[in-house]
Amino acid sequence: MKPGENMKIKEAEHELASLLRGIEQAERVEEYVIRDQQIYQALGVGARLGYLVGVGLDLAWSGGPVIYLTLPTGEVSWGVLPFRAAGDGHDTPAKYARCRAYSQDR
Q1: Which stretch of DSSP H or E encloses residue 21?
Q2: How far apart are alpha carbons 98 and 96 in whole angstroms?
Q3: Total domains in the fold of the chain
Q4: β-bridge partners, 77
Q5: Confidence (pLDDT) at 85
Q6: Secondary structure class of 76 (helix, strand, coil)
Q7: C-alpha–C-alpha distance, residues 24 and 33, integer Å
Q8: Model confidence over 61-75: pLDDT tens digits?
Q9: Domain that holds residue 79
Q10: Is 86 left (phi over 0), alpha (psi -120 to 50) or beta?
Q11: Interior CA angle at 72 toward 36 and 75, to 5°?
């Protein structure tokens, strides 16, 4: 392990733990937009930590997207709100042109 790598792992674990607490709190008070934002953030942090993560569809229950995160303590998952905006019909070249344009200014 490189110097500082263990610290980055600990920071990511702390960030994930904080997100998981926030997800539970947001769900308790039915703040589903906030909860879903935190779930997506947790997905990214879990991936950085090397945890098995993914997105699926819950065809049996809601038909909507489900976020999966496998923690060292076991798998957790959440049904999330589907993306509500209509697509603008962009193709792959346009997608990456937009990504490059965004990246150039930052």
Answers
A1: helix 5-28
A2: 5
A3: 1
A4: 68
A5: 80
A6: strand
A7: 13
A8: 777 899 999 999 999
A9: 5-104
A10: beta
A11: 50
